[in-house]
Design goal:
- The chain has 14 helices and 14 strands.
- By secondary structure, it is an alpha/beta fold.
- The chain folds into three domains: 6-170, P-loop containing nucleotide triphosphate hydrolases (Rossmann fold, 3-Layer(aba) Sandwich); 188-270, Rossmann fold (3-Layer(aba) Sandwich); 274-389, Rossmann fold (3-Layer(aba) Sandwich), CATH 3.40.50.11410.
């Protein structure tokens, strides 16, 4: 469980004003010192993350966030970090101090939960410090909330049971399998993994590992080869159901693999697994309708030191400039933060999103839709410019 990627865990995040008791509540239900607890408001600055096995839910990622009422320039930045966490939250816990509820922050934040379709639970904390009249008033105002004291072990156990039940009932398994519903049991899949300057020494990258695991989970036989041995591997194997290639080798692999064998890429698989396949496919059509000049944002979630064969910063940009007649203004970003002003872009080309959970990718796609910006992904762009997009997406058609 400790090795489960964060993108495959249920993300449970705690929100609220400073000193509402978020950190204390989180520490209490996990039985661990996940976050520093102090009576000083604003003790939690940046989001604090803890991946753990949370019985009986399984692998989860807990996040303790900074107070939504933080002040000053640094406070504003902390609040912005907290709001960014919302986009990747599977289940939210909003903690209120019964004596200082902060209704404006509560309404604004829960409105955002509902907008992003994030299930949440409201907790009214510090009931041991309130009189009976205050308690009755708050219960009347927040009838669906859980009332407790984070210093009461009995309240913590009750809250944990409620939390588990709420998550079980509201967080559904949204992500489809990577290949388990595309290839039959006992089928054969060939994974093409080029070993070039961008390949990490001594290991496979996360998308490749996840596809192999999905094959194992669904009783599918997987064969991993380099592009240089692909032709001989195809001669050795009969009845291949699917070839999955690194997007950068699309053109050469398409030349080697017979038309009778279905072909796609890791990035296109993740377009369906993490995001909205139809939206990303439609986004490709905007390549034929871009204005002049065209402003394009290339967005990848992970950060790394780019090399001479970098897919987002080098290869895709070269293809865009070679194949599109417009003057192009291209910006490449890495990491979890998107530009504050998205309205300036005519197209977003996103990475496969292997480091994002399903909720975070959906939130990003919603943000692009809100700005009426078409979006597609790396694998689809590479397939399009290599003239094999139709072939690379054929296996997904019902």
């Amino acid at each position: 469980m400790d090795k489960t990627p964060s993108s495959n865990r249920i993300t449970i995040a705690f929100y609220g004003r400073r000193n509402a008791g978020k950190s204390q509540l989180l520490n209490g239900i996990t039985g661990q010192e996940v976050a520093v607890v102090s009576p000083v408001p604003g003790t939690t600055t940046d989001p604090v993350k803890k991946a753990m096995e949370f019985h009986p839910l399984g692998p989860v990622l807990f996040i303790d966030t900074a107070g939504l009422d933080d002040e000053g320039e640094l406070g504003r930045r902390r609040v912005e970090k907290t709001r960014q966490v919302i986009e990747g939250t599977d289940f939210a816990v909003y903690v209120m101090d019964i004596n200082d509820p902060g209704e404006e922050e509560y309404r604004r934040t829960t409105d955002r939960f509902r907008e992003l379709k994030i299930p949440y639970l409201t907790v009214i904390n510090k009931t041991d410090t309130a009189g009976s009249r205050r308690l009755a008033t708050m219960k009347a105002n927040y009838p669906e909330a859980v009332f407790l004291s984070a210093v009461d072990p009995g309240d913590l156990e009750r809250f944990k049971r409620i939390l588990v039940e709420k998550i079980r009932n509201s967080v559904k398994e949204e992500e489809p399998p990577l290949v388990g519903d595309l290839v039959p049991y006992n089928g054969k899949v060939v994974l093409v993994v080029p070993i070039d300057a961008q390949a990490p020494k001594g290991r496979l990258i996360l998308p490749q590992v996840q596809v192999i695991r999905d094959c194992l989970d669904h009783g599918i036989k997987s064969y991993v080869v380099r592009d240089t041995e692909l032709a001989s591997a195809l001669e050795d194997l009969d009845g291949i159901d699917l070839v999955i290639t690194d997007s950068q080798a699309f053109k050469e692999v398409a030349r080697i693999v017979p038309e009778s064998i279905k072909l796609t890429s890791f990035s296109i698989l993740f377009a369906r697994h993490k995001g909205d396949f139809a939206t990303l496919l439609v986004g490709i059509k905007s390549l034929e309708q871009l204005p002049d000049p065209a402003r394009i944002l290339i967005a990848e979630n992970c950060t790394h030191n780019p090399g001479c064969e970098d897919i987002g910063r080098v290869k895709i940009q070269a293809l865009l400039r070679k194949n599109l007649p417009q003057r192009l203004e291209i910006k490449t970003i890495g990491g979890k933060e998107l530009p504050a002003d998205l309205s300036q872009y005519d197209l977003v080309i996103h990475c496969g999103g292997c480091m994002l959970n399903h909720r975070a990718m959906q939130s990003r796609l919603l943000l692009f839709r809100e700005h009426d910006i078409p979006v597609t992904n790396y694998g689809m762009v590479l397939a399009y410019f290599n003239g094999i997009l139709e072939r690379a997406t054929e296996i997904f058609k019902v």
